[in-house]
Write a structure and sequence with these properties.
Layout: H1 2-11, H2 20-42, H3 46-58, H4 101-123, H5 127-140, H6 145-158, H7 161-177, H8 183-222, E1 232-236, E2 242-246
Antiparallel strand pairs: 1-2
Helix pairs in contact: 1-3, 2-3, 2-4, 3-4, 4-5, 4-6, 5-6, 6-7, 7-8
C-alpha cells in the first residue's frame, strides 16, 4: 500500500496554473487523502498516515512566492478535525498578487497537511524532518498553533544551540497568540522557563567546541614556525577591549 501511494505522489504533479474548477478538484482529492491519513494516524499507523498526507500534499498547487497573510486564513480544519486557531478573519491582500478564495483554501490545506506530516515524523523520531515540515506549514500560515507547537517541541528534541533558540522564538510567539489566562499560555510559559538554561548550556558548549577547533587549527599552522596559540595571550586593556601579547 505504501509503495502504491509513493508512486502516485511522485507521478502526479498538478500544473502551476489552474482554473477555479481545477483548484477545487485538487482540494477535494487532497481532502479525501487527508481523511485516509487521519484514520491511519488514529490507528497509530504513522508510516501509512505519512504516505497519505504526502500524497495529498502533492495534489495541491505549489505555494505562491508571496507569503499568505495570517489574517486571511480562517476556519482551517486541523489534523484532528478541529478548527485551526491561526486567524481572526479573512482579508484579501490588495494588488495583482492577491490570493483568490480558492488559493487561500489551498494555503490552509497545505498548512494542515504539512503540520500533519510533521506530527507523523515526530512519532517516527525524525525531529529534523518534523521541523522542516512545520516550517513549510508556517510559510502558508505563520500563526498556525499546532505547527508552532510541534516545531518548538521537535527543536527541543534536537537540543542544539540554534534549535533551542528557534524553540524559544516559537514559544514567545505562542504566548502572543494565546489568551493570557489560558492553560496553554501557562504551559508555554513553563516550557520557556525550562528551556532557558538548556539554551544557555548548549550555547556555552558549542562555543567551547568552536574555540577548541579554532585553537587546533591555529596550532597546526603556527607549529610550522615553532609556535602555538599559547604564545599569544589576550588580556583586558581597561577600555572594554583586549590587547594581545606575545610570550615565549
Amino acid at each position: 500500500m505504501a509503495d502504491d501511494h509513493n508512486a502516485s505522489s511522485e507521478a502526479f504533479n498538478p500544473p502551476e496554473f489552474l482554473d477555479g474548477n481545477g483548484i477545487e478538484k485538487c482540494i477535494t482529492e487532497a481532502d479525501e487523502l487527508k481523511q485516509e491519513g487521519n484514520e491511519s494516524f488514529r490507528a497509530s499507523s504513522w508510516s501509512e498516515a505519512l504516505v497519505s498526507y504526502r500524497t495529498a500534499l502533492s495534489r495541491l498547487p505549489k505555494r505562491k512566492k508571496q507569503p499568505v497573510s495570517p489574517d486571511s486564513l480562517q476556519d482551517g480544519t486541523s489534523d484532528e478535525g478541529t478548527q485551526s486557531s491561526s486567524s481572526n478573519g479573512p482579508t484579501q491582500e490588495e494588488g495583482s498578487n492577491a490570493l483568490s478564495e480558492l488559493e487561500v483554501e489551498c494555503a490552509k490545506t497545505r498548512a494542515v497537511l504539512n503540520a500533519n506530516i510533521g506530527a507523523c515524523l515526530v512519532k517516527l523520531g525524525d525531529y529534523s524532518g518534523a521541523v522542516e515540515s512545520c516550517t513549510q506549514s508556517l510559510l502558508d500560515d505563520p500563526h498556525y498553533i499546532k505547527a508552532l507547537q510541534r516545531r518548538a517541541a521537535s527543536n527541543e528534541q534536537l537540543g542544539t544551540w540554534s534549535s533551542l533558540t528557534q524553540a524559544q522564538e516559537d514559544y514567545k510567539l505562542l504566548l502572543e497568540l494565546f489568551p493570557p489566562t489560558s492553560p496553554q499560555a501557562s504551559q508555554t510559559k513553563r516550557n520557556l522557563k525550562l528551556l532557558e538554561p538548556r539554551q544557555q548550556a548548549a550555547q556555552k558548549k558549542e562555543m567551547a567546541e568552536m574555540t577548541g577547533k579554532l585553537k587546533n587549527l591555529g596550532n597546526s599552522i603556527l607549529g610550522n614556525f615553532g609556535l602555538s596559540t599559547d604564545n599569544f595571550k589576550f588580556e583586558p586593556n581597561g577600555q572594554g577591549g583586549y590587547s594581545m601579547n606575545f610570550v615565549r
